[in-house]
Specification:
Its EC number is 2.7.4.25. Pfam families: Cytidylate_kin (PF02224). It comes from Streptomyces desertarenae. Belongs to the cytidylate kinase family. Type 1 subfamily. By secondary structure, the chain is α/β, with parallel strands linked by helices. The chain has a single domain, classed as Rossmann fold, CATH 3.40.50. The chain is built from 9 helices and 8 strands. Strands 2-6-1-7-8 form a 5-stranded parallel β-sheet, with helices on both faces. A 3-stranded antiparallel β-sheet has the order 3-4-5, with helices on one face. Strand 4 and strand 5 form a beta hairpin. Helix 2 crosses helix 4. Bound molecules: adenosine-5'-diphosphate and deoxycytidine diphosphate.
Length: 243
C-alpha cells in the first residue's frame, strides 16, 4: 500500500475519510502546541517529527557515534528502534523500549540534532516511519515538522506554514526554558542558537525547512496560541466541508 494512501483496509465504507494536516515552520513558531491542540479538538492523531529526529540524535550520542561524522551516522541510522505514541493528550517517544521524552530535550541533543537530521540515510529512515504512522491513523493526523508539506506528505489535505519574528520565538523558548527550571536563561543567546538552527535546517541539501507552494502561511507573532489554534481548526473544517 502506498505510504500516503488514504484507505485503511479495516475502515467501513461509511467512515469519514481520514484528514491529513501538515504543519511546518521554524523553531518556536508554535508548531507543537498548535498541532496538539488542533488534533485534540478534531479527534485526530498527532505526530511530533522533531521528537523523532531528537530521538535518533540522542541514540547516536549515547552510543558514542560522532554526530559530525556523516558516514558514521549514516551507517548507524537503521539501528535504533523509535516508537511514537500519537495520542495528542499524551504523545510518547521511546528508543529501544526506553522512554526518551526527557533526554531528547537536553541542550546537548538540541545542539546536535541539525547535524544528524541533515544525513540523508537518517531522513529516509524517519520519513518512512512518518508515512507509515500517517497512513495508519484511523481518523487522520496532524503531523508537524520542517518538511512535512514538501516531502513527507506532499498530498496532505491541508498544509500550514507557521512563522513568527525571531524576537517572539526567542521569548517563547526562553519562557519555556525558565518554566523547566533552567537558571540564567539569556534571551540573546537563545535567539542566536535558534537562528543558527534555522539556518542549518533551511540550507541542508536533503529536504530543507521550506514552505510548500500550496501551504497557508500564518504569522503568529501577534497572535495568542488560542487564536492560532482557532485559525487552523477553521482551515481544516473548510477543507473537510469542501470534500
Ligand atoms: N501564539 C503564541 N503566543 C505565545 N506563545 C506561544 C504561541 N504559540 C506557542 N507559544 C509558546 O511558545 C513555546 C514554543 O512553542 P512550540 O509549540 O513548542 O513551538 P515549536 O514546536 O514551533 O518549536 C511554548 O511554550 C508555547 O506555549
Ligand atoms: N520534519 C523535521 C522535524 C525536525 N527536524 C529537525 C530539525 C530541527 O532543528 C530538529 C528538532 O525539531 P523540533 O521540532 O523538536 O525543534 P523545536 O521544537 O523547534 O526546538 O529536528 C527535521 O529535520 N525535520
Amino acid at each position: 500500500m502506498a505510504a500516503t494512501s488514504r484507505q485503511a483496509s479495516s475502515v467501513s465504507p461509511d467512515a469519514p475519510v481520514p484528514v491529513i494536516v501538515a504543519i511546518d515552520g521554524p523553531s518556536g513558531t508554535g508548531k507543537s502546541s498548535t498541532s496538539r491542540a488542533v488534533a485534540a479538538k478534531l479527534g485526530l492523531s498527532y505526530l511530533d517529527t522533531g521528537a523523532q529526529y531528537r530521538a535518533i540524535t540522542w541514540w547516536m550520542l549515547t552510543h558514542g557515534i560522532d554526530v559530525d561524522d556523516a558516514a558514521a551516522v549514516a551507517a548507524a541510522a537503521d539501528r535504533p528502534e523509535i516508537l511514537s505514541g500519537t495520542d495528542p493528550a499524551d504523545p510518547t517517544i521511546t528508543v529501544d523500549g526506553t522512554d526518551a521524552s526527557g533526554p531528547i530535550r537536553t541542550q546537548e541533543v538540541t545542539a546536535a540534532v541539525s547535524a544528524v537530521s541533515a544525513v540523508p540515510e537518517v531522513r529516509a529512515r524517519i520519513t518512512e516511519l512518518q508515512r507509515a504512522i500517517a497512513a495508519g491513523a484511523p481518523t487522520g493526523i496532524v503531523v508537524e515538522g520542517r518538511d512535512i508539506g514538501t516531502t513527507v506528505l506532499p498530498d496532505a489535505d491541508l498544509k500550514v506554514f507557521l512563522t513568527a519574528s525571531p524576537e517572539a520565538r526567542a521569548a517563547r523558548r526562553g519562557g519555556e526554558l525558565k518554566g523547566n527550571g533552567e537558571q540564567g536563561v539569556d534571551l540573546e543567546a537563545t535567539r542566536e542558537a535558534l537562528l543558527r538552527r534555522d539556518a542549518a535546517d533551511s540550507t541542508r541539501k536533503t529536504s530543507p525547512l521550506k514552505k510548500a507552494d500550496d501551504a497557508v502561511e500564518v504569522d503568529t507573532t501577534e497572535l495568542t496560541l488560542e487564536q492560532v489554534v482557532e485559525c487552523v481548526v477553521t482551515l481544516v473544517e473548510e477543507k473537510q466541508q469542501a470534500r
